[in-house]
Design goal:
By secondary structure, this protein is of the alpha+beta class. The protein is about 50% helix and about 15% strand. The protein has six helices and five strands; from the N terminus they run αααββαββαβα. Strands 3-4-5 form a three-stranded mixed beta sheet. Strand 4, helix 5 and strand 5 form a beta-alpha-beta unit. The longest helix has 26 residues.
Length: about 210
Amino acid sequence: MERFRLPLLVLDGLVAVIAATATLLWAVNVLTPQYLAMATDWIAPLGLWPRVAAVVVAVYLVLFNALFVSVNFLFSKYATHLEFSTAEGQVSIAIGAVEDSLVRSAREIHDVEDVRISVYKERQNPAKPVKVFASCTTWEDISLPELTEKIRAVLKSRMKDMADLPEAPIFDIHIAKIMERETPKEKSPSKKDAKKAAEMFHGPEYPVGMDN
């Protein structure tokens, strides 16, 4: 299938460009039925060959696109579920559910601003350990070695709670972005607050320190 991948992608791209161009020209009233009739009259002397070529290309696109999608779905390199055995039976957890749970656990860490997690389990070689890739965003004044170890510990603990895997997962922590903390700006007092403060201030009343 790999040898057909590039030609298929090229043909898909050409068909998409042609369809988009034709739709645009029709929308702006440039491509009219009269032009289509002229194109048909121009192709007619060529006989059946243009029609045969169009049928071959259409069948190729439909057949190989369907086959390509089916093969990728059935024989994908990575599994869609984590499967393991327990004393009570077989357990299967969707990869997406595992990723969502790990993301929620990592976001509970105070120094993590944002995180994205991908879990990979090879389908063809189930003996290989699960790989967990975490891409995080944090702040400027944070110790990155300490943060990565903290994230790894949290993910490892959560992963152990979810799946009893025969091989310990591999955790790859990547710091994707370091953000600068924004210092809050002091708000200038509003006119209402200034008026209230002025009303609360009373100057000295005269006479001061005099009995009469």
